Amino acid sequence: MHINATTVIVGDKVVLVPYLPEHVPAYHEWMQNEELQALTASEPLTLEEEYDMQRKWREDPDKLTFIVLARQTGDGLDSSQVLGPHDACVKALPMIGDVNIFLHGKETDEEFYGEAEVMIAEKEYRRRGCAREALQLLLGYATASSVGHFICHKPPPQPDQSSLLPLPPTALLVRISESNVPSIKLFEGLGFQVTKRVEVFAEVEMRWRAGAA
To answer: Which InterPro entries does this UniProt record tie to the protein (predicted)?
Structure first.
């Protein structure tokens, strides 16, 4: 079983749930948007291809993917609850984006890293702190720690044959278009520093550094 096959993480603003088949139609609709394609460096897929991608993301041991749901007033959820992705109170929440870590290499490799990404697709939920909290929750869960500005609301992930988690925080990396100043500032606030500029792709590479935030 994939490490986040049933994991639900509850924050103050958002809830993270596994990427399930019922999420695919909405995700497919998002990714027909040219702005989101540009921001995520993605190509549009057919609906069938999107279902294939969902299965791959769920099954591959090098991908940790969550759908971001928005908390609602009076939903009654709190971070101490043990919830499943099919619970009615979770399924009632609106889907607003996704947050991921893609693992590259083996833990014993010198160049091993986990590349983090976040997308808030629904415009009405942008600039509300949803992306920041989604990242805090995911990075706290993936590293089994609350270092810096991360949050860990779940028991530490246990390493097994299907996962390289938990990650050392220093293995975290992001790549962002150098023109995407809000995203760069978001990750700086979470303890990431620009460590490389890739001019051919007009992007920056950022890594987590202790004490950087």
So the answer is: Acyl_CoA_acyltransferase (IPR016181), GNAT_dom (IPR000182), NAT9-like (IPR039135)
Query: Hey, which residues does 114 pair with through a beta bridge?
Result: 103, 172
Higher per-residue confidence, 76 vs 23: 23
Q: Is the pLDDT of residue 109 over 50?
A: yes
- Please name every residue paired with 64 in a beta bridge, in sequence order, or none if there are none: 101
Domain boundaries, the chain: 9-168
User: Which residue did the predictor score with more confidence, 15 or 177?
Assistant: 15
DSSP 191: T
For the 9-168 domain, the top CATH level (class) is: alpha beta
Q: What is the pTM of this model?
A: 0.91
- pLDDT, position 2: 55
Tokens 């809830």 identify what position?
Answer: 15
Q: How many Cα atoms occupy the beta-carbon half-sphere of 114 within 13 Å?
A: 25
- Indicate the SS3 state at residue 55: helix
Residue 79 CB neighbour total at 10 angstroms: 14
Residue 92 contacts residue 70 (beta carbons within 8 Å)? no
